[in-house]
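Appendix B. Chain record.
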Amino acid sequence: MRTRHTLCMISAAVLVVVAAAPVRAGERQLLYYNHAWGTLDRATADAVEHSGYVREFADLEIRTTTGTGGRVWTGRYLRGRETYLEIFGLGDVPGQDGEAGAAGLALSTQRESDIEEVKSRLRAGGAKPVEFVQTRDFGDGKPVPWFDSTYLAKTYDRFGAWAMEIRDEYFADPRGGTEPPAFPGDVGRERYLPDLYRAKLMRDVTLVHVDVTARDLAATVPLLRAGDFSVRTERGAVVATRGGTTMRFGEKPVGQTGLKRVEFELNRAVARHVERLGTSTLVVGPGKRAVWNF
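Structure tokens predicted for this chain:
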């Protein structure tokens, strides 16, 4: 078990690495924010699922998914043009991901094979990326390869971040409902998500704040750097920017971790509206911005 003193030492090391990690000048960004997820109390998850207002606010999909190895999870997906947010209730995901304070972050490529460059950069920095292929079963018992992923920590406390690249087989499967490529090698977020956001208020996620442990933060920073995010420290938090979505990571011990705040860009300006969803509060407007505090 790590002591509080050890965690502080790890934290200091992470902050030093962050401070010395500018964006590579002239290099194309490889990874972009795709989605974040958080496991919330049952009352909040149920409120999101059954809220009429949330269905007006976002393209809300309630879906039970079967992935690699028969792993099953049920999520509430608030989908935008290129980005989305995934909400779980306690027990909606197997194992520790279904426990209070669990959260995750997916960073995705826009161009085919960019994930190979991400892995190359991680190895060049001394890391040993773990590779994994996620599949999706649409209910007929014939899973299709969904995306390639890579991450740095096989075990984690409450938070895991990974890089992903959607597979050609998934884009080719009509059951995925994806769009044709906009350019050769297009595996981007806008192609992957439907255009149903246009009839809703939510356009995209512009900020996520997650509190994580020192160990989980140390496994996240190298992935952000390899993806060409601009990473810095700000008021005791690690902040990653570039590509349209800001990611903030506060350091907390187990028991205080989890998804804390999400901000959105809206399709149109609206008057202020406050919606209580379980123990969380969604404030929409005024203007073209919304804030959700958990």
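Further analysis of this model is presented in Appendix C.
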